[in-house]
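Annotators were shown the component list below and the corresponding predicted structure, then asked to write short factual statements about the assembly.
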Amino acid sequence: MERVYLSTVTPVYRGERWLRRLVDEIGEVREALDRDRLPVEIVEAIFVDDASIDGSAGVLAELAVAHAWVKVVSLSRNFGQHPATVAGVLHSSGDWVATLDEDLQHRPRFLVDLLARAASESFDLVYAEPRGAVHGGFRDATSGVYKAIVSWVAANPRIRRFNSFRMIRGSVARAAASVSSRSTYFDVALCWFTDRVASLPLPLAELRVDEQDRSGYSVRALLHHARLMLVSSEIKPLRLGAAVGVAALGLSVAGGAATLLIKLLYPEVIEVRGWTSLFLTLTFFGGLLSLLTGIALEYLSDLHLQALGRPAFFVVDRGKDALLRPLLDRAGGPPGKP
Amino acid sequence: MILLQPADPAPGAGCTVAVFGVGLIGSAVVSALEAASPMHRRALPLSWDRESLRARETAEIERGIVAALAGARDGRVGGLRGRLAFVWSAGKADFSAREQETPGELASFRTVLGIAERLASENPELDVVFCLVSSAGGLFEGQRAVRRSSRPSPRRPYGRLKLRQEELLAAGRAPMVKLVYRLASVYGPLSPSHRRGLIPTLLLNGIRREVSAITGRMDTLRDFVWVDDVAAFVARALLGADRGRPDETAVLASTRPSSVREIQTLVERVLGRRVYVTYSIDASNAEDVTFSSGVVPDGWQITDLESSVRAIYRRAVGGGAAFDRAFGRRSA
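Structure shown to annotators:
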């Protein structure tokens, strides 16, 4: 039977307490898929040890010995969650790649639902959409506001959906990971390769907060994420400057022509001499500067995105999606849809 | 083939090694062995195609091996002692070989294996190691996350040839250590004489600003290993293979899948500019093959992909006029 292979990727930094349970739950999903004769196999669970600061490395070593499908990648130093995710994705070989946090906020039992949602309309990327509060009211609210602002600034409505619990088509995930640099926000890079993005409402709750009253994300890390999201995006308002410049130029030229006509035909109506020409000259050169700056920034933005690895095109094969039909049949239709 | 004889004539010093096939892998193994200990090198011909020549050439090779062993000991022939290793890294047939191209190579392999088995059987004091360089890509084509328990399932003549060679080696009863190393996609420095894989081709064409035609998809997954890592591992295995060492069959892979597009991006990063690529729509070589981390043997070490690609590039452009002579003039 032809199968669809699924890889999971989990960055690990402070997960000693959760990893065994996480692997057990992934193992249960593997067994359930096999038992239900579904054409999906979790071929590997990749854990990226991002220079973990607790006993995670030892736990992962034990788990890798116990389970042939557990693969551990150790980073040379702490690089952060996104680079660790990118490293994990680049070690994956599945048709689909799911990314999960280490702390069971993202329950493996939802993997099949995410995959079914992806299969429902051949999406390339499905985000889990938190149903209810996840990290606590204030953090959730500030995160939402920031995403809304960046989404508007970058003219990318998909930014509102960004979540670290994702199901990504393997080829798209690896392509985005391969162009991701230190300054790339992984989800923005994913949007360079696909606009077939969906979300699925799921109950997500950060157990770390519930049980230890301490989030896995520091404020500094959150600000870093926010900065990367902005830096990786195309900033549409840059064009506004150029547009204002063009408008000012047009206004000054039209105003100049009108003033010249008035000067020639009705010189008596001009009460204050010199003021109009000064105003038009300032508007003309202000508009010219604004236009040229806008053009220069557009060039810079283009070069920046090229340097970050934004592709000219990418080819994708969605031919195997038909194999996922049994997931939809089992769910009685596409999940997340009324 | 290349016959390596320890430079130190003292009895028991070093290991005499016969390397069959001095392409990308064979020549790297020879270099690694020479780097590990001083050796005298001798080249002897072995025809792949011409059966009429093969018998005479193999007889000459066997005489050369016996002479090298005796010379390494005390100058006498007969009652051979010491250590002798055979490395089969040969291959006129490549991944895209047709069915009719493989029998000649298989016949040559049988002949060489016969020499090794005869010497091992007739000389109880002689430690013989036979190392077969096989192909993980050929054996496991189309399989992902290959594990130790995965069964070879070749899909093309080349894979079937490698599997048959492994079977012939395993079936032998002669007292010798059998090492089978199944290699993932091996890449190495640019060479005008060696077959070039994806990475050297993209680098070379990138340097010359020429178009690379890729028979695969952008998202085809492969596992790339640096030839020097393979050679160093094989050399260590041969030089450390004492009598009583268990036979070993292992995959030498990075266990880190790379898509063709990732390699293209990497080469562009190394070159500092775009490379021109066309992908074959009807790709016959587009099957994925990847390996899980538990599949590799103890002691196997890999060089980071980007580091080795940069090393190839530096070695190529550092060659200056030599590069231009070998590959044609570089574009500015």
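Statements collected:
1. Chain A touches chain B at residues 5, 43-44, 64, 68-69, 71-72, 90-94, 170-171, 174-175, 177-179, 309, 314-317 (CB under 8 Å).
2. The first helix of chain A runs from residue 19 to 35.
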